[in-house]
Specification:
The complex is a heterodimer. Helices cover 37% and strands 27% of the residues of chain A. By secondary structure, chain A is of the alpha+beta class. In chain B, 57% of the residues lie in helices and 0% in strands. Chain B has helices at residues 7-15, 23-42, 64-70, 97-110, 127-131, 147-150, 154-162, 166-169, 173-181, 184-198, 202-211, 220-232, 237-246, 255-269, 273-282, 285-288, 292-304, 309-318, 327-340, 345-350, 359-372, 387-392, 395-402, 407-414. Chain B starts with 6 loop residues before the first helix and ends with a helix. Classes of the chains: A alpha+beta, B mainly alpha. The A-B interface holds A 18, 20-23, 51, 55-57, 66-69, 76-80, 82-86, 104, 258, 267, 270, 272-274 and B 69-70, 72, 128, 131-132, 146-148, 150-151, 156-157, 160, 163-168, 206, 360, 364, 395, 411, 414-417. Chain B: Its main location: mitochondrion. Chain B: GO terms for molecular function: transcription cis-regulatory region binding.
Chain lengths: 321, 417
């Protein structure tokens, strides 16, 4: 039992997983939980127990047949593993920012006490990075490549400059929205300093905001965008691709949405399907634990300081992102 | 001191579950009446707390060790903890109290009713009698787990030592009741000896019985008839043992049912007798599972996927699991392999193992090979990669020999999908 408790003791914290496309996030969470349970239940079975019973029997060394109670240790099967079943039947695994079935990428999970850190991560309102692959020339009803076709169009007139111009427009309009939703009075000096450094972001609910967008690769009909955003859903990102197509006076669908960074978890931290076992997860939790603590501390202190009207010094150590 | 029938319940109620029958009498009577009582009991009512019939229930898992150790030659009174008789976990039927009273009445009048001990707990008691009072905590009359009873039931203890997983069996309430009522010497031993004769090893008995605990309620003659039937169909002894091990419920099927199923497979698959036999030996759960999925899958292969009958026969003899596979998974795999990877029917027939792998594995490996430019599945051309090498080898061998890349490259590629 000792080894099992030890294994469970190291299973508290956050770790990131690479969700492959086509898998629902709930199935992934259930698979990870099953694998962790397998690992935790696989310890050595406990030693056979004994219990003390007072048995009636003739006393040794006495001539008469007088009966007396003697305390004897008899084996007991009450806590035998075949009678009780496995030691653990469920583990609490929580999911951070979700990904829908067709998208892929970094998905943050929390085990045990790490689930409260998930709430902290949510309240830190950190940005996320996506790579979005688009296809010019058709439009579908759900903005995906395999949806019902709505429209087809030509795209010969589309050039890289036009695309870049559109993306810059989008970024500019979202910049304005960022300032508006962050509820900061830009007339103050602190707010101006933060805006200059690009640290403004809303710390409460807001619609999807894009903090940065650029085109990585353009080979018509395909193009690859890198999007940095917050408070988004993957469907909204696909809709963004559709709208970019409309702005370019053609149509576009989204063929891939892939999250490359969620807050401070990057692709390097993400565990692949072959690594979803207890040891890799424990190592991942331990590897990221110090970074998680530092980053959450920073973002919490930043949010505190930024709200205070008279704090001028606190801003220096706050580094939002 | 003839207690009338009406008085007895009241008396017992006031005494709260202790019975005052002498040990020797109890021993003898229970020996005789035990079996019938337990059967009578199974038709019995819910044991409420003021029920005076609890002591009768003792017999069924007669804790003979407990009894013998605590029996004395001349004890006049034994206070039997009533809950020990609790082996009626969750029995729900109507109480038939009236049925019991006459029997009890005759019981009492037979015995020396003047043996009845005093009712007051303050009455002085001799040392010997005091020692013989059993004051173990009472067993619960009904419970959801067999843990409470395992230390008091020899049958359960012997089953655990055999390797039977009681935690799985107690999930079925009827199963737990059945096991508690069984007696190791009489019922269970015969079946165990029969199974050992069949060829099931000691260490395999545990897993077998965990799955098919209902075999204890089968008649030994029926089991022997079924084995004889299988032997008459020219299944060798070793084959029968293997089949029973892999499909634990096989022996619970009657001879007609087995006959029907064998006939169905012969007609449906149209294979030779020997090949059908080999197929059944390889996958005996074809006989115990439902036949509907098999019929559906045969239609899917013929109509939807477009395989010819001899092709289906070939695939099934290679991979029998295809008969019971999930229809949706089959169509998804076939769709990807045939339409996306452009592999024609005759190649798929040669490697039916693709239908047995997970779709994500096929997709990931195919996309990696396409990325490297090595996705060549045509045997007539160079650098041909066969389908079974694609799906059956583990990751390291696939990366090194087939994709000629490192495992890290494969992982990096997977993170770009």
């Amino acid at each position: 039992m000792g080894s099992r408790r030890l294994a469970l003791a190291r299973l508290h914290g956050l770790f990131a997983v690479y969700k492959p496309p086509g898998l629902k996030w709930k199935h992934l969470r259930d698979t990870v939980e099953l694998q962790l349970l397998k690992g935790v239940n696989a310890g050595k079975p406990p030693a056979p127990e004994q219990r003390v019973r007072f048995l009636l029997g003739p006393m040794e060394g006495s001539e008469e047949k007088a009966l007396t109670l003697t305390a004897t240790s008899v084996p007991s099967l009450t806590n035998h593993p075949l009678v009780c079943g496995p030691a653990f039947t469920s583990l609490k695994v929580g999911v951070g920012h979700r990904l829908d079935a067709q998208s892929s990428g970094v998905l943050v999970l929390g085990v045990g006490h790490g689930r409260s850190l998930l709430t902290d991560m949510y309240n830190a309102h950190l940005t996320k990075d996506y790579t979005v692959r688009g296809l010019l020339g058709k439009a579908t009803d759900d903005f995906c490549e395999d949806g019902r076709l709505v429209e087809k169009s030509t795209y010969d007139h589309v050039t890289r400059e036009k695309l870049d111009r559109i993306l810059a427009l989008i970024q500019g309009s979202h910049q304005k929205a960022l300032v508006m939703y962050s509820n900061l009075d830009l007339q103050t000096q602190e707010a101006y300093d933060m805006a200059v450094r690009g640290l403004i972001r809303p710390m409460n609910k807001s619609p999807m905001l894009i903090t940065g967008i650029r085109c990585l690769h353009f080979a018509p009909p395909e193009f690859l965008l890198e999007v940095q955003c917050m408070h988004e859903t993957q469907k909204q990102l696909r809709k963004l691709v559709h709208e970019i197509g409309l702005e370019l006076k053609t149509t576009a669908v989204c063929s891939q949405v892939r999250r490359t960074r969620d807050g401070f978890f990057t692709l390097d931290d993400a565990l692949l399907r072959t690594q979803w076992d207890i040891h890799s997860i424990q190592n991942a939790i331990q590897a990221t634990a110090p970074r998680v603590a530092v980053e959450l501390e920073k973002s919490l202190s930043w949010s505190w300081d930024s709200r205070g009207p008279s704090s001028a010094s606190g801003l220096e150590n706050g580094a939002g992102h | 001191m003839a207690l009338s029938a009406q008085q007895i319940p009241r008396w017992f109620n006031s005494v709260k579950l202790s019975s005052f029958i002498t040990a020797t009498q109890l021993g003898k009577q229970f020996q005789r009446r035990g079996k019938t009582l337990s059967h009578g009991f199974s038709a019995q009512p819910q044991m409420s707390s003021d029920n005076c019939f609890l002591p009768w229930g003792f017999k069924t898992y007669r804790t003979s060790s407990l009894w013998n150790s605590s029996q004395s030659t001349n004890s006049s009174r034994q206070e039997i903890s009533s809950a020990q008789s609790a082996l009626l976990p969750s029995v729900n039927e109507q109480t038939q109290k009236t049925q019991k009273i006459p029997r009890f009445d005759s019981e009492l009048s037979l015995e020396a009713l003047d043996d009845l001990p005093p009712l007051s707990p303050l009455q002085p008691v001799s040392e010997e009698e005091a020692i013989q009072i059993i004051a173990d905590p009472p067993l619960p009359p009904d419970t959801f787990t067999l843990r409470d009873y395992v230390d008091h039931s020899e049958t359960l203890q012997k089953l655990v030592l055999l390797g039977v997983d009681l935690s799985k069996i107690e999930k079925h309430p009827d199963a737990a009741n059945l096991l508690l009522r069984l007696d190791f010497e009489k019922d269970i031993k015969q079946i165990l000896v029969f199974l050992k004769d069949l060829g099931i090893e000691d260490n395999q008995l545990g897993t077998y019985l965990t799955k098919n605990y209902a075999i204890f309620s089968e008649d030994l003659e029926n089991l022997k008839t079924r084995v004889a039937y299988l032997q008459s169909k020219n299944f060798s002894k070793a084959h029968i043992a293997q089949m029973v091990r892999n499909a634990p419920f096989l022996l619970s099927f009657s001879v007609e049912r087995l006959d029907n199923r064998l006939g169905f497979f012969q007609k449906e698959l149209e294979l030779s007798v020997k090949k059908t036999r080999d197929l059944i030996v390889r996958l005996p759960r074809l006989l115990t599972g439902s036949l509907e999925p098999v019929k559906e899958n045969m239609k899917v292969y013929r109509l939807e996927l477009g395989f010819k009958h001899n092709e289906i026969q070939h695939m099934i003899t290679q991979v029998p699991k295809m008969l019971t596979a999930n229809k949706r998974k089959l169509t998804e795999i076939f769709d990807y392999v045939h339409n996306v990877m452009s592999i024609p029917h005759h190649l798929i027939v040669r490697f039916p193992q693709v239908f047995n792998t997970r779709l994500f594995k096929i997709k990931e490996r195919h996309l990696f090979l396409t990325y490297l430019g090595r996705a060549q599945y045509d045997p007539t051309k160079l650098n041909y990669i066969s389908l079974d090498k694609l799906v059956s080898v583990p990751d390291e061998i696939f990366c090194e020999e087939i994709a000629k890349a490192s495992v890290q490259d494969f992982e990096k590629f997977l993170k770009t999908l």
